[in-house]
Every structure is written in structure tokens, then in C-alpha cells.
Design goal:
- It is built from 13 helices and no strands.
- The protein is mainly α and 251 residues long.
- It is flat and about 60 Å long.
Length: 251
Amino acid sequence: MGKAAAAARTSVWLEGKARRGRGGGQPSGLDRGRITEVTVRLLDAEGLDKFSMRRLAAELNVTAMSVYWYVDTKDDLLELALDAAFGELELPDPQDEGADWRDQLRALATAYRGLLVRHHWLSPLAGRYLNIGPNSLAFSRTVQQVIRRTGLPTHRITSAISAVFQFVYGYGTIEGHFFGRVADTGMTADEYFQHAMTAVTEAPTAAEVVEESKDIMAARGGDTVTEMLDRDFTFALDLLVAGIEAMVARG
């Protein structure tokens, strides 16, 4: 795609594109929801690099032209898949006065982390598109409303959102890459971790760093990779929540 075409492209969610097909008789008994569902499944199974409209059509047992009856471009379809993934999130009620904003913020952060790990293709797409589908907007709105309840001044709301959710984005993206590598090897996560640590010690400089880090790794806690990742995430998130509390107290 040339620079002019890329600049001209906006979003499937603008100009009514997300709500309309090409009109007329709809071929092959498909609908946009079914196409999006299969797209998400293919992206999960094969990754973003291997995804194509031709591969999708084969999975649906139709021609590629049948798919294009429902979406104009591959980009439009990927945007639909991105928002469908955000639809998996269970959002707390930010208007619930009996709920603690800390618990709601932790729930949102944990759910977003899980989404990034389950759908390893999500993180690059979230940065590629405007990401203004209804499910994504519902998530963003809930996050904003929860952060408002912290007591931070209005001009610090976006900073707090960035601190928490850019951390989650980075953590979940790297964790998703890790489990993707694990799946490619056919090992368990714990087997792969031990194999990787053994391989690292064969490089002198890396071995030196590992040796210096032994006490940190030993104190980290957790009998499995999953437990270690969960403990690190939980404590890092607690640090951010404590930071928000400290800034509110500082006034």
C-alpha cells in the first residue's frame, strides 16, 4: 500500500462500513459475524503473518470473492476481528458506588493481559488501527470512568491510564510472544524455560548476568513459569495502584 493510499484509509468503523455489505443477494449463506469469528480462530491458530483472505476463504469453503462481498478489504476484516476480541472482556460497572476502584482497576488490567496472551496477534493490530469499534470503546470508557474514581485531578487521568495500561500492553505482549515460542517447540512452558536458561549459560556474557541474578530468581517465588509470571504481574500492578494512591494523597 502506497503512502497516499495508507493516508486515505480511515477505519471500517467510519462511514457506516461496519454495518453494510455490498447489498443485493448475499452469496454462500455467510454473514459478517461468521466471517469475523473464523478470522479470529485462524489468527489464534496460525498467526497474523500467515493470515490471508485466500486462507480464510478456504476455511469457510467459499471463494475469496464471496468473502469480499461482506468486507471491502483485509484491513477492514482485521479491524472487525480486533474489536470482536475486545468483546470477550467482562467489564466491571464503574457506577457501582459500593465497588473499590482498586479492585475494578486490577480486574480490568488482568482481563486485558489475558486478552493479549490469548490473542498474540492483537497487540500489533491495536497499534495499527484507530481501534474505535464498539467493544474497544466500551473498554476504554470503563477504564476512564474507573480512573476518574481514584480522586486524581482531571489533567492526570490520561497519565494514570497510560501508566497502567501501557504496562499491561507490554507485559501481555511479551508474555504472548513467550507462549507462542513455547507452542512452536512442542514443549511445556516449564520445559522451555529450563531449556532456555541452560542455553543462555553457554554464552559467557549472558552466563555472567544469569549468575548475578540467581538470588533474584530464587527469591522471585513460584514453582512454575505461570506462577512466576502471575506474581510479577500482580506485584507490578500493586506498585502502580500504590503510586496512584500516593499521588492522590499528595494532592
